[in-house]
Specification:
With 178 residues, the chain is an alpha/beta fold. It is 34% helix and 15% strand. The chain contains 7 helices and 8 strands; from the N terminus they run βββαβαβαβαβαβαα. The longest helix is centred in the middle third of the chain and has 12 residues. The radius of gyration is 17 Å and the shape is globular.
Length: 178
């Protein structure tokens, strides 16, 4: 009997162009600004409900990325990573996973090696065409505009977790508490 693909237990995500729209605003006072989408954050919070660990693997270091990751409870945050595939392999080893049990979402050329080794990969609609060519899933939304949430929903449906995750939000009680 042939066995199917290994279940996904890790989703590693790039930041700039994936969790954000890719723009980096550097103010005259040295402050950096990025915009994150609230639905992407909610999607990331769904992952542990399905036994999937969220992680960030970014080529650029940013205090804002660290802050957003902390807000979302993302423990595995790897920034200033020049080799995202190597980082993904190390993260898998740390978590006791095979690369086939990992998913990776990115948007550009530097993400392709990690996407290619992962068991499942996704890109936002506005990703580099070369990244779209190797992705298992291309979102309808652009990076920073709900693309991560869309990919997470697709992943949870693919893995058979969507209904169970939804059930955690459904209430069978009709009582109203004052």
């Amino acid at each position: 009997m042939a066995s199917g693909p290994l279940p996904i237990r890790l989703l590693a995500m790039d930041v700039d162009g994936t969790l954000t729209d890719g723009r980096i605003e550097l103010a005259g006072d040295g402050q950096e600004r990025k915009t994150f989408h609230a639905r992407d954050g909610q999607g990331i919070r769904l992952l542990p409900l399905a036994g999937i660990t969220p992680a960030i693997v970014s080529g650029r270091a940013s205090a804002l990325t660290a802050r957003r990751a902390a807000e979302l409870g993302i423990v595995h945050v790897h920034q200033a990573e020049g080799d995202k595939a190597r980082c993904l392999l190390a993260l898998c080893a740390e978590l006791g996973l095979e690369p086939a049990e990992a998913a990776f979402m990115g948007d550009d050329l530097s993400d392709i090696p990690a996407m290619s080794m992962a068991g499942w990969s996704a890109v936002p609609a506005d990703a580099a065409s070369e990244a779209r060519d190797v992705a298992d899933y291309v979102t309808h939304a652009a990076g920073g505009h709900g693309a991560v949430r869309e990919a997470i929903e697709a992943l949870l449906r693919r893995e058979g977790h969507w209904e169970a995750v939804l059930a955690t939000f459904r209430s069978t009680s009709t009582e109203v508490t004052p």
